Amino acid sequence: MPVFEHILANFALHVNLDVAEEAYVTSVLQHKTLEKNKMLLETGETCRNLYFIDKGCLRVFNRDKDGLEHNVLFCPENWWAADMTSFSGQVPAYYSIAALETTELFYFSYQSLEQLYIDVPKLERFFRILAQNGFSLYQRRVNSIISRSAEERYIQFQHLYPKLEQRIAQKHIASYLGITPVFLSMIRKRNG
Length: 192
Prior knowledge:
This protein is an alpha+beta fold. It has two domains: 143 residues, Sandwich (Jelly Rolls); 45 residues. It is built from eight helices and eight strands, in the order ααββββββαββααααα. β4 and β5 form a beta hairpin. α4 packs across α5 and α7 crosses α8. The longest helix is centred in the C-terminal third of the chain and has 27 residues. It is globular. The protein starts with a helix and ends with a helix. This is Crp/Fnr family transcriptional regulator. It comes from Pedobacter steynii.
C-alpha cells in the first residue's frame, strides 16, 4: 500500500486540499517502481503520464544525431517529471526519461488529470503554479548555459540539487553542465 505523505505535502505547498479532496486525488493516483537505468519514456513515444518522484531520481535527456546524450533536467524526490509538450499536447516526445536510481513514482494519466481539473479545481491552480515555476527554471537554465562559465554552472547545479552529486554518476552531471567528465573533475578539484 503506497504512502501518500510526500505527494500530499507537495500539493500543500500551493493548495489546501480538504480530506475528501485528498481521498479522491489519492484514489486516482497510480504507483510504480522503475529500476535503475530503466526507461520511463523514449523520444518519439507519447508522454501519457505526469510523474511525481516519491523516492529516487530521474533524468530528462535527449540524444543528438551522433547518439550522444544531453541531460537537461534531474528530477529527485519531490520533483515532477514529464515531457510537458508531449504530455499536454499528447504528441510524440522530444525528450527521453530514465531512472538514475531505483525510483518510486506516483503518476496521473492525461485523462485522469483532465478530469481532476474539473472535479478538484484547486489542482488546476497547483499545476499552473508548477508550470510557471518550471518555465522560470527553464529560463534560468537557458540563461546559465549561454552566459555562465562551466564553473559557475557547476556551483549553480550544487545549489539547485543539493546532495545529488553524491548519488549520480559524474558523466551525467558533466552532460548536464555541457562539459566533459575530465573537465568536471578539474572544476571539482579547484572547488574542493
